[in-house]
Amino acid sequence: MQKAWLCLLRTDPHDHKLYKIYLEELRSLVGAAGYTVIGETIQTRRKPHVSLLFGRGKLEELKEVKRQNDVDVFVFFNILSTIQYYNLSSILGNVIDRYDLTLQIFEEMSMDRVSKLQIELARLRKHIPIIKLLESIRFKSGREHPGPRSLGEYAYHRKLVNLVRRLKKIERELQRYRRMHSLHRRKRRKLGIPTVCLTGYYNAGKTTLFNLLTGQEKPVSPSPFTTLSSKYSKVQGLDVFLIDTIGFMTGLDPQLIESFSITLEDIKESDLVLNVIDIAENNIELLKLRYREVVNQLKRLGIEEHRIVYVLNKIDLLSDIDLEYRVKYLNLENESYVPISAKRGENISLLTEAVARKLANK
Fold first, then answer.
1. 124 and 62 within one domain
2. Where does the chain have alpha helices with state H?
3. Nearest-5° Cα angle at 21, 16 to 25
4. One domain for residues 155 and 242
5. CA dihedral in degrees (259, 212, 280, 103; nearest 10)?
């Protein structure tokens, strides 16, 4: 396994908890990507260094860390700008941020044409500006510099033209898939069959619930982002189409979200959204952070509150008192919620009744 060193810039000196949660999220993702975490560096400064993110003194420390620990890759929680990526790569060698890390995991989990295209689109949108910068620096300085992801040391201009051409081709192909998805949605609406979409944070148990409600056997894994493209099936005993979609995560870059627009359209166009929450998450503050992240993403997608049912999954791991406390902690007392265990099939009839009731009142 390659050895990874985690890096995070904390811009709020009064934040004594949130940055630790972010770091644990990063550690989890790095492990899922197949790296071994051997250490971490956190710097606190009011503003990120425009061209380096960290201060120069901290980067000197990281150079020494690399020499002493033989670090293979530095993983930054912060999303790096083009110039930051270039400069940090020049100083530290192999550098990736949370955006690149997420795409690495996506690539490992992708099984179909649409998800692979959306991943490639997201990667090109991130790295084409870096290639442009490298081209500019090469001409100004009269020297070459290695490109990202082994793109080669020379002929940046030719590679840039080819990459832009590839990006346009992917966008055209995804547009065809988008029209096809839209046609299928219109056909389902003509049949009068409502659509219900499963969403939530990654590893909340969405696919387990999807399999339980539909009788399907879609892959379930403890690794994040098992589902990248939407899965569709009829619900057993209910005249409803159920859609399983990609899980959210903390601080998803808007550019990355936009690249998965085909998948997100299934959420936006659904009649009802089941927000699946891992209510048994041990870290209560992390539970709230993940809950808020998904709620905010649904708001950005234009999902109204009356179209949401909160599905509190994994109640088999909690006492009734713990469940009640967590419901209050998330301020869900006045919301539509159903506590279930998708793994054990607990309260599934209550969930289907809630779905039928919501759709009838729509």
1. no
2. 18-32, 56-69, 82-92, 98-109, 113-141, 156-190, 206-214, 254-259, 261-268, 284-300, 320-329, 348-360
3. 155
4. no
5. -20
What is the C-alpha R_g of the chain?
22
CA distances to 128, 137, 215 from 145, rounded to whole Å, are 15, 8, 54
Place of tokens 């991943």: 119
What lies within 8 Å, CB to CB, of 65 at 6+ separation is: 5, 39, 41, 71
3-state secondary structure labels for all residues of 58-108: HHHHHHHHHHHHCCCEEEECCCCCHHHHHHHHHHHCCEEEHHHHHHHHHHH
In the block, which residue shows the tokens 């899965």?
231
| 73 half-sphere exposure, CB direction, 13 A CA radius | 21
Inter-residue contact 19 to 42 (CB < 8 Å): yes
Tens of pLDDT, residue by residue over 278-337, are: 999 999 999 999 999 999 989 988 999 999 999 999 999 999 999 999 999 999 988 889
Contacts 24+ apart (CB under 8 A), 341-345: 341/313, 341/314, 341/315, 341/316, 342/205, 342/208, 342/209, 342/212, 342/276, 342/313, 342/314, 343/205, 343/208, 343/314, 343/316, 344/316, 345/212
The two structure tokens encoding residue 311: 């599905």
Question: Domain span at residue 305?
Answer: 193-360
16 falls within a domain = yes
Q: Are 213 and 310 in the same domain?
A: yes
∠ CA 252-258-263 to the nearest 5 degrees? 95
pLDDT in tens, 89-141: 999 999 999 989 988 888 887 777 888 888 888 889 888 888 777 767 665 65
* Residue 88 near residue 80 (C-beta atoms within 8 A): yes
Q: How many residues are present in the chain?
A: 362
Q: Measure the CA–CA gap between 344 and 105, rounded to whole angstroms.
A: 28
Tell which phi-psi region holds residue 202, choosing left (phi > 0), alpha (psi between -120 and 50) or beta.
Answer: beta
For tokens 């550690």, the residue is: 27
Determine, yes or no, domain membership for 302: yes
CB 20 within 8 Å of CB 28: no
Token output for 221: 């894994």
